Amino acid sequence: MSKPVFDNILTRHPLVVTFLFITLCLLPTLVIRDFTPDNELRYLQIADEAIENGTAFAFTLDGEAYADKPPLYFWIVMLCKLLLGKHSMLLLSLFSLIPAFVIIAIMDKWTALEKVTDRMAIAFMMMTSALFLGLSVFLRMDMLMTMFILLALRSFWLMYTGEGNTKRQSFLLPVWIFLALFVKGPVGILMPPVAIVCFLLVKHRGREIGKYLGWKTWGIIAGLCLLWFLGAYLEGGKGYIQNLLVHQTVDRAVNSFHHKAPFWYYFAAIWYIFPPYMFLVIGALFVSLSKSGGRERGNADDAELFFTVTIISTFVMLSLFSSKMAIYLAPIMPFMVMLFVEVLRRTGWKKWMTWSLAVPVGLMGIVALAVFIGLCLGDKIPALAGILAQFPFWRFWALKLATLVLLSGAVFSLYYLFRKKLPSISLIFIGASMLLTMYVAASRLSQANDWVGYGNLCETIPSDAEVATVRIRRARPMKVYLGREVSDYQNDFEKFKAAEVDARTLSDGPLVLVTRTEKLAKDADLAAFVEGHDHWFVGPYCAVKYNPDNNNPSITEQPLDL
To answer: Which value, to the nearest 10 degrees, does the dihedral of the CA atoms of residues 364, 365, 368, 373 take?
Structure first.
C-alpha cells in the first residue's frame, strides 16, 4: 500500500508544508493588524510624499529631507500604493514574510539536514525566535537586509568551497552586498566583507582576500552606489548628499544622535531577542568557541568556524558603533541557528541542550497559565481589574483559548523532550503552538487596533474637520489615513489654544483635537477643554470636536473619568 499523499508531500517538501502552516497562522495578523505609528506609518507617509513630489531617490518627511534610509524599501511601498491605490498591510507584510522564508530555505540548504523532522524543527526554531518572528510580521527593512546579507555570504561560501558556478557567484556577491546596503544602510555593506576577511584571516588565508573582495567586487558596488548618489544629488542637491553620506553614517557610528548606547549593550540584548531558544544558541556559541565540544577549535569544521567567525565579528563591529538597538542584531540570527545545527551535528544532543530548552519552555508554560488565570479572575482581583479595565477586549474567549494553546504546546514540548527523548518533535511543538497562539489571539486584533495604531481613531473623525494633536507622539503620520495635514502641538496646549481656538471663526469650520486620555489628569486646562466640548474615546485616545457655532458638550462611548 502506498503512503498517504500528505506523507509523500511532507517527506519531499517539508519546508513547503512548514511555510504553508506558518502563513495560515500569521494570515489573520497580516490582514487585520493596523500600521504602527512609530515606524510603519512614517514609512507610508514618506512614500506618499515621494509620490506627490515625483521623487525616487531624495525623500522627505513632513516636507523636510529624510536621508535616514536608502530607497529600495520605499520603492516597494510606493509600488504597492500605485498598484492598489492604497496601502495594503497584507501586501506590504509579504515583503517581510517572504524574505523570512528565503532565509530559512537558504539556511536549510546550507546546513543540509537529512531528517524531515530535523529540517522542520530548525525551520520552526528560526521562525519563532522572538525577534525573527516580530520582523516577519512588522513592516521594516531589516528582514530584507538580512536576506541579502545571507545571500552575499552564501555566494562567498560557494566560491570558497568551489561549489556551483564561481563566475556567477563572483558577480552576485557584490550585487547582494549592494542590495543589503540599498535596503537599510551601512551594516549591509560592512557585515559581509568583515565576516569574509575575519574568516580568511582565521584560516591563515589572508592572501586570498582579493580573490573575493577585489577590484571586481568593489568596482560593481561603487558603480551601483554612484548611480544611487547621482540620483539623490539630482533630486535633493548637495545638502541631501551630505546628510546621506556623513550625518546618517559617520555621525551615527561615532557619536549617535539616535539610540546611543554603551559598548556592552548587545551583551544584554542577545538574551532577549532569541526566546525561547536563547540558551540553546548562545550555549552552542560557547561550545564552538571552547574545546569542550569534542574537537579542538583549530580543527573545527569550516562551516562551523565560518558561522562562529561571522557571529563574533559582526557582534564586535556592531558594539563599536555608537548607535545601538536590539533589532540591529537581526543579521546574525540565521548564523546563530546554523551554528547550533553544526554543533549539534558534531556533538549530538547533550544534556545541557535539554535543560537549555526545557527552562524557557517551562517558564513560558507557567506564564501562559498565569495569564489564563488572570483573564478568568480579572474582575475578582481589584488590582488586576484596574489594569484590565483599560483593555476591554481581554474579556473575549479567544484570548483565554490562546493562552491554553500556548500552555498545551509547552506541556507537549516538555513531554517529548523528557519522556520520548525526541528534541526535534519538542521544537516543532513549541514553534507550532506559538504560531497557533498568534492565530487564535488575532481574532481580537480589530479591537486591539485601537491601541496599535491610528486607523480606528481616524475613522471617527469627520471628513470636513481639521485635525490637531496635543500630547501625541508622532502624530503627523495620521495624514496617511486622513488624507490631509495634521497640526501637531506636541505638549503645548496653550500654543494650540492660541493658534486654533482663540483665532478660530465660523468660516474656518470644525476642528478635532486628539490627545491621550491618560494625559488629561496631568493637564487641568486640557481636561477642562475636553469637558466643555463634544468628545469621544477610542482606545487610549480622546478626540474633541470644537465648532465655533456649537459648543454644547456631549459625551460618547464613556464618561471622562480623571
So the answer is: -140
Q: Which residue has the higher pLDDT, 286 or 298?
A: 286
Collapsing DSSP to helix, strand or coil, 48 comes out as helix
Q: How many CB atoms lie within 10 A of CB 89?
A: 18
Its pTM stands at 0.91
**Per-residue model confidence as pLDDT tens digits over 205-264:** 999 999 999 999 999 999 999 999 999 999 999 989 988 887 666 655 555 445 677 888
Distance between CA atoms of 320 and 255, rounded to whole angstroms? 11
Cell, residue 93: 507584510
- Look-up of cell digits 557585515: 191
* 3-state class (DSSP) for residue 345: helix
Residues 398-419, mean pLDDT to the nearest whole number: 95
The three-point CA angle 365-370-376 to 5° equals: 125
Average pLDDT estimate for 432-438: 97
- Those residues with Cβ within 8 angstroms of residue 2's Cβ, 6 or more apart along the chain or in another chain: none
Letter for the amino acid at 465?
A
DSSP-assigned states of every residue in 367-408: HHHHHHHHHHSGGGSHHHHHHHTT-GGGGSHHHHHHHHHHHH
Where on the phi/psi map is residue 265: left (φ > 0), alpha (ψ -120 to 50), or beta? alpha
* Strand, helix or coil for residue 323: strand
Contacts of 77 (CB under 8 A, 6+ apart): 43, 44, 46, 47, 87, 92
Compute φ and ψ for 541, nearest 5 degrees: -105, 150
Average pLDDT, the chain: 89
